[in-house]
Amino acid sequence: MQSALESPSTRPYLLRAMYEWCVDSGFTPYVAVMADDTVQVPREYIKDGQVVLNIGPDASNGLLIGNELIEFKARFAGVVREILVPIDRVMAIYARENGQGMAFPAAPAADKKPRAATPVAPASEDAPPEPPTTPPGGKRPVLTRIK
Fold first, then answer.
1. Which residues of 2-12 are buried (b: 16+ CB within 10 A; e: fewer)?
2. What's the 3-state SS for 100-129?
3. Could you state, in chain order, the average pLDDT of each consecutive group of 10 residues for the chain (147 residues)?
4. Which domains does the chain have, with CATH numbers?
5. Under DSSP, is residue 20 helix (H, G, I), strand (E, B) or coil?
6. How far apart are CA 79 and CA 15, in angstroms?
7. pLDDT at 120 (0 to 100)
């Protein structure tokens, strides 16, 4: 429970709003995540302590952007994996197609214990396709600050 002096973070609300904007505009929402021990993602996709995840409806299944955690299932190399990302580990959300989005200030290093991996059911025919690892054209997306 939050005290009267401690206000809730705006980050989850902004993430949900940017996600909705991307989807409504026909764009593919990506999140850039600081991948530490509190993040449950396939470790082989982490580069320089970061990972970029496609959270679009075509690439994620059961997406929930809560106030504390983003959770969903996605295919990586044909295998369905459960993804858990604490909200404070999200560094940015942006549209793959044009790079427009929102960056967030770095959160202090997490002092939480690592999460145990949760077993995931085998891949099924109706699971979403594997998210792309690089954007089209091989260029890194550019973030644009929206005021």
1. eeeeeeeeebb
2. EEEECCCCCCCCCCCCCCCCCCCCCCCCCC
3. 68 96 96 95 93 95 96 94 96 95 80 42 44 52 62
4. 11-138 (2.30.30.220)
5. helix
6. 26
7. 40
Q: Give Cβ neighbours of residue 67 (< 8 Å, ≥ 6 apart).
A: 8, 9, 12, 87
Q: Are strands 90-95 and 79-86 parallel, antiparallel or unpaired?
A: unpaired
The C-alpha angle with vertex 57 and arms to 99 and 51, in degrees rounded to 5, equals 50
DSSP-assigned beta bridge partners for residue 79? 76
**At 64, phi and psi to the nearest 5?**
-135, 115
3-state secondary structure of 32: strand
Rounded distance between C-alpha atoms, residue 99 and residue 116, angstroms? 33
